[in-house]
Design a protein that fits this description.
The complex is a heterodimer. By secondary structure, chain A is mostly helical. Helices cover about 60% and strands about 0% of the residues of chain A. Chain A contains nine helices and two strands; from the N terminus they run αααααααααββ. Chain B is mostly helical. Chain B folds into two domains: about 35 residues; about 70 residues. Chain B has four helices and no strands. Classes of the chains: A mainly alpha, B mainly alpha.
Chain lengths: ~250, ~120
């Protein structure tokens, strides 16, 4: 049984390190990947405790579904618009530190005192093994004795479905109108820090752009611009970037 | 504790996971060792022939995706509830069958609501 404790400490170490990685990682996507690693290691811990059903649920629900939810959030928000996680106000840092210490103390107290121990009831290892495993035991308990709670769960899930749709589903007509409004055509002009295209003749001298004044640049959806071009081929050269002063990213709005 | 449980079955699963990770790392490492690497500015551009990008290349997605993800979570949990029911199905008899029908019926309401609300459509 020696290798079992080696495996446990390996799993626990990776679990704690990846949990720390979730907090420390700069990129939100990296945090999500660390979270996957953490969830998988928790599933492995459940396996070592003999709770194989819980381990599979951990993988399917947390690693599968919850992580999908997290990644979808990352897709929906613009990562550049997220607040920087590592530059909190001093009061936030201090209160976070205090709350974290309190939580750590609580967990330590619970572990050392071992006061939290539920009644095992009839679920002794022998009884569980007699019905074939803890998935079977759970099924017997859930669908026989606690049937009402099980049906109530289905009601709760239905409420979750309806709530998700009511709260998050955009009105269809509004969506279509918004999509019509945001159509943009980008012809690939590098834009200077002042927002004026680098190749605009009035500002930058000779260029293949049609003689355009800033008045000709029709704004679409607020900020972006359409620029009339006489010779589109002139814009497909590699090296168009070089017109930008210092190789910085072209537009960030 | 059931030693036979992770003395055999789970070790196999662990080996499978390790093998999958090892294969991925091995292929990436091999690629780094073997493949020639001559980076240039033109190769780093998103398109070798075409206009350079002027706006952020990371588009934002419509909230519709998020509704689908949330529905996925809910029905995923529903599927979880079916597993323990399936393994003891023989012992439960008609009673358990009707219980699961009631469960499915209540969730089916939510499904029909989502369907009729257009949460599953993209047009």
């Amino acid at each position: 049984m020696e290798w079992a404790s080696v495996a446990f400490y390996l799993i626990a170490t990776v679990c704690v390190l990846s949990a720390a990685g979730v907090v420390i990682a700069r990129s939100a996507v990296h945090s999500a990947i660390f979270l996957i690693l953490c969830f998988l290691n928790i599933a492995a811990t459940f396996v070592m405790l003999g709770a194989e059903f819980l381990a599979v649920v951990q993988v399917i629900v947390y690693t599968g579904a919850i992580l999908v939810l997290v990644l979808f959030v990352l897709m929906l928000v613009d990562e550049d618009q997220l607040p920087d996680f590592h530059t909190g106000q001093p009061i936030q840092r201090i209160s976070g530190l205090i709350l974290g210490l309190i939580l750590l103390l609580e967990i330590g107290a619970a572990i050392t005192a071992r006061s939290i121990q539920g009644a095992t009831g009839g679920a002794t290892p022998e009884n569980v093994a007699a019905v074939g495993g803890n998935t079977q035991a759970l099924g017997r308990v859930l669908y026989d004795d606690n049937l009402l709670a099980f049906i109530v769960v289905s009601l709760v899930l239905t409420v979750a479905v309806i709530g998700a749709i009511v709260l998050a589903l955009p009105d269809r007509r509004v969506g279509i109108n918004q999509r019509r409004g945001t159509g943009t055509i980008n012809l690939g002009h590098p834009v200077g820090t002042d927002g004026i295209p680098l190749a605009l003749p009035a500002v930058r001298g000779e260029s293949p752009i049609a003689a355009a004044t800033p008045g000709d640049l029709r704004p679409v959806a607020g900020e972006r611009q359409i620029i009339m071009v006489r010779d589109p081929d002139a814009y497909t050269e590699v090296g168009q970037h070089d017109a930008a002063p210092d190789n910085r990213p072209l537009i960030k709005r | 504790m059931n030693t036979q449980l992770y003395g055999s079955d789970w070790v196999v699963i662990g080996i499978l996971i390790l093998a999958a990770a090892a294969l991925g790392y091995a292929l990436l490492t091999l690629n780094q060792i073997i493949a020639p690497s001559k980076p240039s500015a033109a190769k780093a551009a998103p398109y070798e022939s075409g206009v350079p990008e002027v706006v952020a290349t990371k588009p934002r997605f419509t909230p519709r995706f998020y509704v689908v993800a949330m529905l996925f979570v809910v029905f995923d949990i529903e599927a979880i509830f079916i597993f323990p029911w399936a393994v003891v199905f023989d012992g439960l008899g008609l009673y358990g069958f009707l219980a699961m029908l009631a469960f499915m019926f209540l969730l089916f309401d939510g499904f029909i609501y989502a369907w009729k609300k257009g949460a599953l459509e993209w047009a």
